[in-house]
Amino acid sequence: MKQNKVKSYLLYAIGEIILVVIGILIALQVNNWNEKRKQDQRFMFGLRELYGEIKSTAYYESALKDKLTFQLIRIDSVLNKSEEIPLRRLPAMIQLFDQYGLDVKDNTWKAEYLEFVPGDDKRNQMARALRSIAFGWNDIEDRIKAINMNNVMVFHLREYNVPIQIYYAGTGYEEFIKKGSENEYTPQQLSQVRTLVKAPSFIADLMTIKSIKENILNYTSTVGFSAESFLNYVEQYDPKTDYSLPKMEIIGTGLPNGQWASGLEMKRVNPENENIWEIDQELVDGVIKFRADDEWLLDWGKGESDPKSLVFKGGDIPVKKGNYHIQIDIEKNTMEFTPLKN
Predict the structure, then answer these.
(1) Per-residue pLDDT band at 245 (split at 50, 70, 90)
(2) Helix, strand or coil for residue 80?
(3) pLDDT digit string (tens) for 271-328?
(4) 249-339 classified as CATH 2.60.40
(5) Is 263 left (phi over 0), alpha (psi -120 to 50) or beta?
(6) In which residue ranges of the chain is CATH 2.60.40 found?
(7) Measured distance CA(10)–CA(16) in Å, rounded
């Protein structure tokens, strides 16, 4: 009798232990599932937040190429044909060579959501690629600082007592040079400019800057290609999210009562195509740009080497008073202003 009771107790105890172990295993599984769900949510949040930055990088290829081409042509002119350049244009042109056209943003807080997860090779590969593209411009800027080439042209101008002017982000390169040429330089200052462009130290630094800009131009083409390919990969990875541009607006002082805080929404020519937008709009004498968000992350203006082209992060577009049918194509980098009959 006692043996039967002991046996029953043992079976009961073993059963209880098994139930407890199963409960613990289930709890651990639920906890692991919850942690994975949280990690997935954090990753998807970071992915969506950084998508705009990566899209910006993809658009940047044509914009940066436009700016660098404008500068490289003028660097060659200063190095080889400086005597053919009007003296009054030279100071601002030289100062402009300090600009690299890089739009560096702090993506650290967004990248923190792209955690590496053991065993998830597909996601880790995407996180690694995202980080490299998102921080690519930061790396270039750090390298420029490391070789101490920031504001080196301003240093040379000051060394020769040539006045400089403040360059504001978003200012068109040609506008900057034109404004600089209107400064009241003294004959002695203009003579110093002519001496400066023949100085060996200036020539050496300018040739270094030329080499850096040529390398950035090559790098941009590579990054632009990988960014575009990566965008397609992200859209396949997260098909439930609509990554297309939600809107496009025209903005600026060229609109009646226009300013830079808010603009007027345009419409897609084809609902399925996020690249072509249009609007019938009255304009006044002023300048405009086009942007796809409210934070100036994605915006377009006129090109530097070709002012009739539309480029990402381009300069202000001068407009004249009148009624126009306006159409832009951000893929082909074109803009059209067709006058409307009254």
Answers:
(1) confident
(2) helix
(3) 878 889 999 999 999 999 999 877 787 889 998 878 889 988 888 999 999 999 999 9
(4) yes
(5) beta
(6) 249-339
(7) 10
